[in-house]
Amino acid sequence: MTIDHDRRRPRDGQGSRPLIAHILYRLDVGGLENILVELVRGSVHHGFRHVVVCLADYDEAFRRRLPDGVPVHALHKPPGWGLGTQWRLYRLLCQLRPDVVHTSNLAALECQPVAALSGVPGRVHAEHGWDMADLDGTRWRYRWLRRALSPWVQRHVTVSRHLAEYLTERVRIPKRRVRHIYNGVDTKRYRAARRSSEEDSGQGGVLVIGTVGRLTAVKDQATLIRAFARLRERFSAKRGDLRLVVIGSGPEEQSLRALAAELDVADAVELTGNCTDVATRLAAFDVFALPSLAEGIPVTVLEAMASGLPVVASRVGGLPELVEEGVTGTLVPAGDPEQLCDGLAGYLQEPHRRSLEGAAGRRRAVEHFSVEAMVGAYESLYRELLAPPARSGSVARKG
User: Fold this and answer.
1) pTM for the complete prediction?
2) 119 and 263 co-located in one domain
């Protein structure tokens, strides 16, 4: 049997561009999913083709954000290990014959052995962050699972230095197989709004505090609503000028509405549901808040920074890598409404900080977190994995 080592030639024989198969649990509104869309959009015209495989299913409206011609497959995985799903995935990969499989987060990591057994030559796994099941990465079972499946993975990608240290120091994956690639944002789509001098000086009336994210326990919007209620109590004279906008949907929506009513702030809290034009809504905010209990490199914070907003966020995960204390925003302990209230109050008491820190955040997003830099880093990684093996005669001797 002859083995073709020239991995630059697509395995499926379709054209000359390698095929990347992205595997994730579900394609729906979320940070990881936004990054996937941006990655596909950015590289689809630069030498790669893409296909998306959802272990569960997908949201049709979100699927339409992908470029035309990018297929999406759903395997309808039931809860649990799902051996039947793995068999369907094996058959699908044998049919698609991708050149690289790119899995995302722990739920898709178990697909790496299937990819290897189906003959996929390039295998990447990306870690985007943790959830309520393992807020700080301390659960032994999940560390063991990552370590056990790591031999099937050629490159582990982390979106933050925090996650890279977790993989190398606590999971004990060799550093040479861990690659750090920051998430990126379209800084042309998200731009700083032009605010009047009256607004910059704090005389412009309503102060809008906003957040974007799925309404789930790990995002902890409940702490933000409690902090907002304290803020209205503390600045009772300006009570009518303070508003909170929560963009997103999810299982916590009804409990958050009930909490706002219980704290007597329902008249000033707007829960919008999902939004198709987040950039426009961000342009109407004065301060962005993210009270999460755990995070990787959240896309919503990058979008807020690119929009010229100061960010008040929890000091968890990769957030300290984004928010520079006193320069682009404020970091506070997670789950503490009082300290979150203090952080927000600073932008009410010193309104000039909004424009100063917002402008600094915009510069930081443009310089370090562009979608172009992210796409370029992933493209380089794919090419590295698909490069033909070096011939022994061309390897230079060590002096």
Assistant:
1) 0.87
2) no
